[in-house]
Design goal:
GO terms for molecular function: aldehyde dehydrogenase (NAD+) activity. This is SDR family oxidoreductase. It contains nine helices and 14 strands. By secondary structure, the chain is of the alpha/beta class. It has a single domain, classed as 3-Layer(aba) Sandwich (Rossmann fold), CATH 3.40.50.720. Strands 4-3-2-1-5-6-8-12 form an eight-stranded mixed sheet, sandwiched between helices. The protein has a two-stranded parallel sheet with strand order 7-14. A two-stranded parallel ribbon has the order 9-11. Strand 2, helix 2 and strand 3 form a beta-alpha-beta unit. Helix 4 runs parallel beside helix 5. The longest helix is centred in the first third of the chain and has 16 residues. The protein is globular. The two termini are about 40 Å apart.
Length: about 270
């Protein structure tokens, strides 16, 4: 029997993920919020649906969308004044909609914004009292999924997404300068995001929480200087050098590497593929 995967969110990460899962032999359904995006999904071989959480579930034929073996949730909190309440309300609506469906496995794309800046390496158990409202919203959503009945959830906490059109050169062309040069960076290439999700599905690694971040953490000044050299741009100006260093965190993905046996395609963000 062919395994069906439904992707709730087919944007910058979700669409290429859907293409890769099709290559691996899955049947893939994908959701967008506008019918205008249907042709791109159909061209890729993904069965398109219009699904929204506003925060109540809306859309066309959600019962058919949730008629799936695996559900991947890939939508960030909306930037709005009530971001925490709204995002958790979205997930309560979602969990209610999943009751009585065939969904038995859920994978949530979360973020390392759930961690406070602890001035050290952080692991999965350190997610508490995040400063960022987006982190508070995601931590609340994670808790709702963990407490739900009827399916097992694995949570992947991705750090800053890079690769393809998300390159430091583009940032430098817009600004020509950067701040907080002594900050260690937490970054992950999109190819590794897709590779890690694929491994969770292949290994059936359900009921887990994993950090997902490249194992090397260059300083911000190293990252942008290397980008300028690579692209032939003028060396960027570093601002705020006389200011006190900001608090930092270093995302530790040791558990992911050990549990899944995963080896990063881009372990060093300084060696960003073209």
């Amino acid at each position: 029997m062919t395994t069906t995967v439904s992707l709730l969110g087919c944007g910058w990460l979700g669409l290429p993920l859907g293409r890769e899962l099709l290559e691996q032999g899955y049947r893939v359904k994908g959701s967008v919020t506008s019918n205008s995006a249907f042709p791109e999904l159909q061209e890729a071989g993904i069965v398109p649906f219009r699904i929204m959480l506003s925060p109540e579930l809306e859309g066309d034929d959600p019962d058919m969308f949730f008629d799936t073996d695996i559900l991947i949730l890939n939508f960030p909190p909306e930037r709005r004044p009530d971001i925490v309440d709204y995002h958790t309300a979205q997930f309560r609506s979602l969990v209610a909609a999943l009751q009585g469906t065939p969904v038995r496995h859920v994978l949530m794309v979360s973020s390392t914004s759930v961690y406070p800046a602890l001035q050290r390496a952080v692991r999965e158990e350190d997610a508490h009292n995040p400063e960022a409202l987006s982190g508070q919203a995601l931590l609340g959503a994670e808790g709702i999924l963990k407490g739900a009945q009827g399916f097992d959830t694995t949570i992947l906490r991705f750090c800053g997404l890079i690769g393809y059109d998300r390159r430091p050169e583009r940032f430098l062309m817009r600004s020509g300068s950067f701040a907080d040069g002594s900050q260690p960076l937490n970054l992950i290439h999109r190819d590794d995001c897709i590779g890690i999700i694929s491994e969770v599905l292949r290994q059936g690694a359900w009921g887990e929480v994993f950090n997902a971040c490249a194992p090397l953490h260059p300083l911000r000044r190293e990252y942008y200087t290397k980008a300028a050299e690579r692209s032939g741009l003028p060396l960027p100006q570093e601002t705020g050098q006389n200011e006190s260093p900001k608090p930092f965190k270093i995302i530790d993905s040791t558990r992911l590497e050990e549990k899944l046996g995963y080896r990063f395609t881009v372990p060093d963000p300084l060696d960003l593929p073209r």
